[in-house]
Amino acid sequence: MPHLWIAFRSFTRTFFWIGIIAGWTLPSAHAESVLRVAMTAGDVPITIGQPDQGFEGYRFVGYNIYDTLTSWDLSKSDVAADLRPGLAISWEVDPKNPNRWIVELRQGVKWHDGCEFKAEDVIWNLDRIANEKAPQFHPKQFAMIRNRTDNIQKIEAVNDYKLVMTTAQPDSLLPYQLSYWFMVSRCKLEALHYDYEAFQKAPSGTGPYKVDKLVPQERLELVQNPDYWDEKRIPKHDRLVLIPMPEATTRAAALLAGQVDFIEAPSPDTIPRLQSAGMQIMTNGYPHNWSYQLNFVDGPFKDIRVRKAANLALNRADMKKLLGGYMIESTGNVLPSTPYFGHPSFKIEYNPKQATALLQEAGCYPCDITFAISTSGSGQMQPLPMNELVKAQLDAVGFNTKLDVMDWNALLDVARPGREKSPDTDGINISRALQDPFSALFRHVYSKQHAPAGSNWGHYTNPAVDALIEEIYATFDPEARLAKLTKLHEMMVDEAVMLWVAHDVNPRALHPRVKGFVQAQSWFQDLTPIHIEN
Amino acid sequence: MMAYVMRRVLYAIPIALGVSIVCFSLVYLAPGDPLQTLLPEDASAETIEIVKKAYGLDQPLPMQYLIWLGRAITGDLGMSIATGRQVSGEILKALSNTIILSVGAITLSFSLAFGLGIMAGYLHGRWTDRLLTGLAVVGVSVPNYWLGIVLVIIFSVEYQLLPATGMGPGGSGTFNLLDPAHLKHLMLPVVTLSLIPMGIITRTARAAVAEALNQDFVQTLRAKGLREWAVATHVVRNALPQVLAVMGLQFGYLLGGSILVETIFTWPGTGFLLNKAILTRDIPVLQGTILVLAIFFVVTNLMVDLLQTAVDPRMQRR
Questions:
Q1: Chain B residue closest to A408 (CA)?
Q2: Which of A131, A259, A520, B39 has the fewest CB atoms within 10 Å distance of its CB?
Q3: Chain A interface, best mutation among B28, B41, B259, by max A CB count within 10 A
Q4: Distances B111 to B123, B138, B180, B242, B243 between C-alpha atoms, Å
Q5: Within an 8 Å CB–CB cutoff, is residue A201 touching chain B?
Q6: Residue A327: how many CB atoms within 10 A of its CB?
Q7: Given an 8 Å threshold on Cβ–Cβ distance, is B163 in contact with A257?
Q8: Which residue of B has its CA nearest to A376?
């Protein structure tokens, strides 16, 4: 028996040392770090290039799987996000021809499928969204991006990494439009014989994430792209799981229950509960506007005094209290931190006496108005209680406000055709993204954007504004352009072209273990710096 | 029996055709069109026309219906405008997920409700009856989406016993009924969904049993010296056709998926699919889903009718 004991002891010692050596030398298995995000979207955004589900699709899918020629700098929280190089490292207008842009592309970029990104890919991508006869053409993709690229007449490759883009009209804001246009791999789509249904499940872009798994309606799992061309933006977590969760209470519950780590847009009344459970609540101003576009042809808002009266009637501080402090009071169409905010002479403030005096001077007292509003919708915040408060405040100064309530899609049906189809509607409450100068300023006041051709729902018309916009399009010097943009914003505020109420602050709730997130002043956000602490 | 079955199947055909016309045309009556969600606000008229043509929305409505019907008969319900995926695939997947939820809710609600209803019927007029009836009324009256949220707050948030959302830790693709970790995801939505059918069936069973108990044959059976449990068997059998009819209807409703409950629990069933399709005006998905669910309802009621005749042969002779 003693010899058996000795043998047992020596086996044990041997395996002990094998274990110690293995532990030091063999690579250790580590648990994958996973970031689980609950989106407000009702479905997983489509993955074939231009995403749907609004800007949430861009934020979580578009900019993660794909890149654009110009991109957004989302690394700072204290300034409004602006453009930076993406797949293009430089873009300049030809000094001799303002319709001609010279674009230098980034070299050494690989698609997820291993093919190399070259100039021909950009031309192929233009056909994908513009040429009905091209096999890669997709009508929905066309529908979603064409309005931003329809000024591009043609693209020619000078060599593998240099392009010339020719526009139909001079457009100094073209780089902003390019930041919304995602580049999709020709290699992959051709290999799949243009089967977009198959491409959806295994798309190929150049972005910091690759698609690992798509469960329609339920989740999209992305994994880091370790070969991403921007090493600083290789994700600091292994896996990003995106889960559509349209109900705000469910998102909050899922975060509290530990099922997700990051939720979009918790409702203001759940925030104290989330905070008490130790969740991080992140907010920041961003280019969003909750306002009313007005009817300049029919009804009382033709008169600038009535428009000013409406703006002076609103106690925005009360609105802020209603939302638990989660908004920024509007003082113009854009946030004051926007470079082209300027110094409008019309002060948007609470002055009910002045409001009443203006209505009486305008001979509209009481002043009957009807607003079309929705029960929910992208960026609409809490539309029902907010509108009730606006109505009460307007009525207190002499308006007689009627709210025409409908669902989001029905409201868009009122917005798209313009005021002509709704002459009895004096204003529509549709929140707007103000991400770039065209979106923030031009489309609301340019006469060429009169709905249904564009977003100028109420048919605001001002030849001086039109002339200024055309000057801006033709001004390629950034400083000179900024001065003109500032003047345009000042004119818009002085003319009280909208009834301004609030800017959202984009609240998000994060689990304490989620670190490294910087909330940019943008509709888009960069999730790559996030790491998950154990 | 066979003749009866054939007759019922033949009646179902014009019903299905009528349902298809209603399904197809109803979605067009709602304000808003699918292009709203496809196109940016400042899409040009030319862009709008190109997209309309690509999705066949430029055709007159009767022509669109005929094209759609021709394809639907072969099982092709078209492509989702929102996702570009086959509608039939989307519906089948969603339906299978809703069936899992519905079977759970039915098992819970029918078994409990039938038992409680029989008890209430037998103890008609006593405090037990009043208590059970009161509970049934509460079950029918309490909004189930509110109950769902309350259950989530208690069991998921406060006590972290059950998950708040989703169909399994990895989604429906990996859902495994035999895995307790996956079954946990089923519990709260099943309890929430079972509330209304439980209330309705309890009350129906109670009324049917109480009515049967008042019939002469019960007195005759007791007079013949039959034991009470044997009498109860006859009473229940006589009450069953009424209850079966209601169960069939409830099963049909559950298969339609509860938009609210599935949205709260992010359960990827037909309710969730319909909710998304309504918000995006995804007409092919709306038409296909409503048609499939309506046909399911017709088939379910046919099965219930056949079951009723099996239980009560007198119904066959009517």
A1: B279
A2: A131
A3: B41
A4: 18, 18, 22, 16, 12
A5: no
A6: 26
A7: yes
A8: B279
Indicate the pTM of the whole model. Answer: 0.86
Q: pLDDT at position A189, please? A: 97
Name the pLDDT band for B41 (thresholds 50, 70, 90).
Answer: low
pLDDT at residue A27, as a whole number: 42
Q: CA of B305: how far to CAs of A143, B72, B78, B117, in Å?
A: 49, 27, 33, 22
Which residues have C-beta within 8 Å of that of residue A235, sequence separation ≥ 6?
Answer: A208, A209, A224, A225, A527, A528, A530
SS3 A322: helix
- Alpha helices (H) in A257-407, listed in sequence order: 271-276, 304-313, 316-322, 352-361, 383-397
Q: How many C-beta neighbours within 10 Å does residue A124 have?
A: 20
Q: What is the pLDDT of residue A256?
A: 94
Q: Which of A143, A257, A453 sits opposite B39 (nearest CB)?
A: A143
Nearest to B51 among A142, A246, A452 (CB): A142
- Residue A52 near chain B (CB below 8 Å): yes
pLDDT digits (tens, 9 = 90+) for A339-378: 999 999 999 999 999 999 999 999 999 999 999 999 887 7
- What is the ipTM score, two decimals? 0.80
Residues of chain B contacting A142 with CB distance shorter than 8 Å: 47, 50-51
Query: What does the pLDDT look like over A131-163, one tens digit per residue?
Result: 989 999 998 899 889 889 989 999 999 999 999
Q: Is A253 on the interface with B (CB under 8 A)?
A: yes
Beta carbons within 8 Å of A364's beta carbon, 6+ residues apart: A300, A303, A306, A398
> Between A and B, how many CB-CB pairs are < 8 A?
159
